[in-house]
Amino acid sequence: MKKLYFIFVLLLSSTLLLGSTFNIKAANKNTISTAKTASSLNANKETQVKLSFPGKEDKLGSDIVFVLDKSGMSAQNDIYTQAKVFLKNIKNQAKDKNLDVKIGVVLFNSIGNIKQKLTNISTDKGYKDILKALNSSVSMGTNMHAGLLAAQKMLEDDKTVADSRKHMILISDGATYLYSKNKDYTKAYTRSFGNPKNQINPKTGKHYSNGSDKKGGIWEYQSRDYNTESTAPKFYNANTAEKLKAYLNEKRIHDKDFQKYEYEYNFASAYLNIGRKVMPISSDAVANIEAGFIYAWDTYKQIDSKYNTYVYYKNAADFDGSEFLKLLKGGELDTSFTELENKVTTMISKGSRVEDFIGRHFDFINDLNKIQIKSGSSVLDKERISNYRYGFGKRSDNTYRYELIYTPGDNEKIELKVNESVKADNLLELTYFEKLTVIPEKPGEYTFKTNEKAILYPIDSNKKPGKALVFPIPQVTYTVKKIEIKETEKKIKEKHKIKPEKKEVKPQTGDHTAIFAMIILVIGSVIGMIVLIRKKSK
């Protein structure tokens, strides 16, 4: 018997797949990491959403490079004392709070000297090595440009820390008269007018009368300023940051014309007069100190555009370069390390907030029992403030460490207000539930975003807004599956206990066989009777 197949089509509308889990990892590590996940839908078509920051993988990393002039921190100066206290605090907090802080040290004399490469301060050995480097000293020449170039390279070479968490600290008296070329901080260059009395004034035809050979040192500008017209711009008159800015920008125009007179500054050129060149005196001439200022200024601006910079003034020796330092800083100089310490140890502070817009296929479940905030490993106590506002971690003054505000409607969202500092070692996690409101019926696979967008607006410990950070958007998959099941006739009958029917043979239309047989039988009987009667009559 042929086998018959019956097809049963079942629409299964409760086949659910796990929601995708996302975790942002920046190309450069140690930015504020944001994470967001969504669970699979449960029988009530609800998904549990978890939003956290800093990310679980975060280890708060920072690079700090000190750039010091040749005396290092050996002097008993107030700024140096503060710097050492700062380092001690950072060292202690690095151990306690899972901070990954590396310190580098550059001292500049005629060149940039890397006295300590970036070293983790949390270890006792690292801390001692850093202090030793800071207390060291070098001699001969002053080339701030080289020191800045060395620091710039040190920061650039560390790819494990985000640029936003890199810091450069310049501590100097502002005096610099040498510079480097092609970013090579291991060589120094200068310019010299030689002995002005050996040069002839083209306007008078006589030798200049003022000055002496400054040997490419810091006072070279005097050989020009004291031998040119009183109406010509003078370096010594550029005695404020604003005046110095205008003066240097004017000199910048002529710098190329005088680069041919530069020569390498070293022991031989400085003390043996070997390899020196003499630059002609003119009011347009760009002296070594002016070139040194211009190149250091340009490099500082490059560093400042990418990293965090701090400029401290140490006591002047024979030259007061504080106005040049103010020019670099663009205003008042730094006087304490509090701001830097806060930046290094804190990621997110009071005033930060998260805006989370619910996905258009979902509704936020506005039930306090389904909302939770964890700070580190502790679940915070919670209470309802109003229908759409909840407080978490109530303080003794009746304020809350965190608040959640729900806004229903077309632009449905929740807002998390942060009312305390969030340390790197203290993961903050918000958990809530959403319900899927659009239920497909046709077979197929459907993917829904649990959120339209979620953004963290951080405020740092110095009350400055940081770059807005976007959370990933989790998705859940809802599947309506078409499943085919095939069964044989025999199996179906056995399954449903169907008894086989008895067979009956019924005459078919047009079948006359029985009638012909009856007629023949009748005719035969008649003939038999006739024959019998004839025999009896005889």
Automatic annotation (TrEMBL):
InterPro entries: VWF_A (IPR002035), vWFA_dom_sf (IPR036465). The chain crosses the membrane at residues 514-533. The keyword Protein transport does not apply. Coiled coil: none annotated. Residues 1-26 form the signal peptide. Gene3D superfamilies: von Willebrand factor, type A domain. Residues 63-174 form the VWFA domain. Keywords: Membrane, Signal, Transmembrane, Transmembrane helix. The keyword Transmembrane helix applies. PROSITE patterns: VWFA (PS50234). It comes from the Bacteria. This is VWFA domain-containing protein. It comes from Eggerthia catenaformis OT 569 = DSM 20559.
